Every structure is written in C-alpha cells, then in structure tokens.
Amino acid sequence: MIPTITAFERSPDHGRGLARDMRVRWALEEVCQPYEVRLVSFSAMKEPAHRALHPFGQIPTYEEGDLALFESGAIVLHIAERHAGLLPDDANARARAITWMFAAVNTVEPPILELVTAKFLEGDRPWSKERLPLIADRIRDRLKQLSARLGDTDWLDGAFSAGDLMMVGVLLRLKASGMLDEYPNLSAYVSRGEARPAFKRAFADQLAVFTGEPQTG
C-alpha cells in the first residue's frame, strides 16, 4: 500500500528543505518506498478534516490504510521500523539510533526553533535584542556538545541511521545563520547528509512544490 503524506501547498521556507515533511520524504526515499503527497493550504490545515489527522493543525501527516500518524519524528520512526535501512539490526545499536532521534527533536531543536521565533515573530518586541544573544548562546552550547560527541566520525553511531536523518534535518535550520560554520565537523556532517541521493530526491520534490513543478515521490 502506498502511503500518503501531507505538505504545505505553499511552503513558508520557499523550498529550502526546512519544512518537516522533508524529513518524512527523506526517510521514504532512503527505504525506496513510493509515496503520494497531498498538498494542504494554511486554511485547510485548520479545518476539521485535517485536524482529524493532526489535532494541532500542522503538517506532515502520514496515512497508510487505516493508520494515520502525525509528528515527523513518530512518522520517521514508523517508516524505519517497517523498512530496512534506517535502523541497525543489532538491538543495542537500534536503541541508540532511536535515542538520537529523540535527542534531535527534544534537545537540539528547541533552542533553534526559539531563535527562529525570536527573529521572525518577535523581532519587533522591545526585549528582542537582549533575548537573541541568550538564545544563540544556548544553541552554541548544544552545538559544542554535539560537535564533541561526533568528533571525526561520519555519523553519530556507526552507519547512517534515522538518528542522523533527524539530526541533519534539525541542523539544516541553522545553515543560513552561519552558526554551523563555527563547528566544521558539524557543517561537514550536514553536507554529508545533503549529499545522499535520497536527500537530493526528497529535496527536489519539496522544492518542486514551491516552483509549481509536478511531484515525483
């Protein structure tokens, strides 16, 4: 059965691969699973039909038969558990890969999203200029810790896994800020993720939404 995912009809990131459906697209491409995409407008995301799939009115969602999921991390984990290629066979290595998935969205991503909010939604507030350096410091603390853990290895724990997929997806949000450049091994890590053929296919499909070209997923 071919799953269906939802994505922004007009992505606010202008096709830069930052919307969270990108993580799901990438995972599906890594495991060579065909999929369909249903594009939704911002208004449709708040309608009862979409809220039945995603109670918070966001994207992505994932539908496969009578199964409906939301939250990109949960969807990627489901894909990784159903298909070979994103989780190791060894039980301990598998558990560590899943741990890195949680670390990406629970530990590394929150201050990064806080920076985005402070810049673009709260930039006109009088306290914004004082708050931004504090957020940047929290991000740098996380990046320093992650950089030390990664060291000179290609991936977080041996071979590429769903943990790397989620972590690269989170770190991509920092490319425009220049903060990743302060940690050469993390910058190279993200570049390795972007160089994967599955990432390129997923990125091209997400970009096609913005440019109006047909989907190929």
Description:
The chain is of the alpha+beta class. It contains eight helices and four strands, in the order E-H-E-H-E-E-H-H-H-H-H-H. The protein folds into two domains: 4-85 and 198-211, Glutaredoxin; 91-196, Glutathione S-transferase Yfyf (Class Pi), Chain A, domain 2 (Up-down Bundle). Strands 2-1-3-4 form a four-stranded mixed β-sheet, covered by helices on one side. Strand 1 (4-8), helix 1 and strand 2 form a beta-alpha-beta unit. The chain starts with a strand and ends in a 6-residue tail after the last helix. The mean pLDDT is 92.
What brief labels describe this structure?
217 residues; globular; alpha+beta; four-stranded mixed sheet; single chain; 8 helices; Glutathione S-transferase Yfyf (Class Pi), Chain A, domain 2; Glutaredoxin; 2 domains; 4 strands
Low-confidence stretches: none
CATH top level assignment of the largest domain = Mainly Alpha
Number of strand segments: 4
How are helices and strands ordered from N to C?
EHEHEEHHHHHH
Task: Report the structural category.
Answer: alpha+beta
Q: What separation lies between the terminal Cα atoms? A: 14 Å
Total number of helical segments?
8
* Beta strand %: 5-15%
Question: Can you give the helix content as a percent range?
Answer: 40-55%
Biggest sheet features: 4 strands, mixed
CATH architecture of the largest domain: Up-down Bundle
- Gyration radius, in Å: 17 Å
Look at the structure and give the mean pLDDT: 92
> Strand order, biggest sheet?
2-1-3-4
* Anisotropy-based shape: globular
**Per CATH, what is the topology of the largest domain?**
Glutathione S-transferase Yfyf (Class Pi), Chain A, domain 2
Number of domains: 2
